[in-house]
Design goal:
single chain; alpha+beta; two-stranded antiparallel sheet; six-stranded mixed beta sheet
Amino acid sequence: MGRAGSANHDHDTGMGDETGDQPSASSASSASSAARRKQMRTRMLIAGGAIVAVIAVVLAFVLLNGGGKATPSNAGGGTSAPASAPAGSAPTGSALAQVVATTTTVPAATLDAVGAGQVSARPMSISGPALTSGGKPEMLYVGAEFCPYCAAERWAMVVALSRFGTFSGLAATHSAAKDGAGQAEPYPNTATWTFAGATFTSKYLTFTPVELLTNIPDPTTGEYTTLQTPTAQQQALLEKYDAAYGGSIPFIDYGNKYLSVGASYDPGVLAGLTWSQIAADLHNPDSPVAKAVLGTANYMTAAICSLTADQPASACTPVVKSLQSQL
């Protein structure tokens, strides 16, 4: 998929022909083989029609900062983050259950208090045939575990989507510190979630996540190991809507009505924080974490509400609906 992250940074994820964060010409190989090829550090390439037949489309992927241009040391317009890691290991067992519960139960009053928050990018309007799955509007996310911009965006996605349904199987992870070639990543070890292996249940919409690569360096390729492969339809959407952004990730398609590419806020807000610290900060509307994460979650919720006819009312509050005019 292209550049990892919405904050400026080159990451390659190739899909289809060749993969890699940025340019690499590819042969029409499968999306998964493409996804291994080039590293997420320079650009993520999405070569899309590998599955289809003779199309070798190579898109140069670079990490964007909230729709910005990719520049390796600036994410979200800030300076490169310190090489700090979240204290302690990723939570498991009862500790994980507690962090999940804290993250998925942010009160509507707290979200409303944050409102637009402090974000650097909002979902943008696009046109296309309605994207649906199972008779419900579909929200498609494409990212990668190594990607710090995806790491930041997942916190907001978990908060926003939990207003419409229930997650199960969420696991804690962190963004990468160095790729398979030993090159340092921006915002290393950012605490986050992975959607690989998780499920989301909702009567209002279908959430479809694709985590292309792990955060495990692969010295043989200089990149990361492959995790999940997009379907032909998903790849087509990436080629249609993400090409203009260099194939950047995270990529979020809200029912083919709205699109987000790259991180919506500076991942540096999360630097050095543990999962439990971030989750706790989400309940304090005056914290920098809440202003960034919940502000982003509110815009995500506004986009989703436009797909669900503003249902449920508990999610599509007057504050959220007031943000829809800004999308």
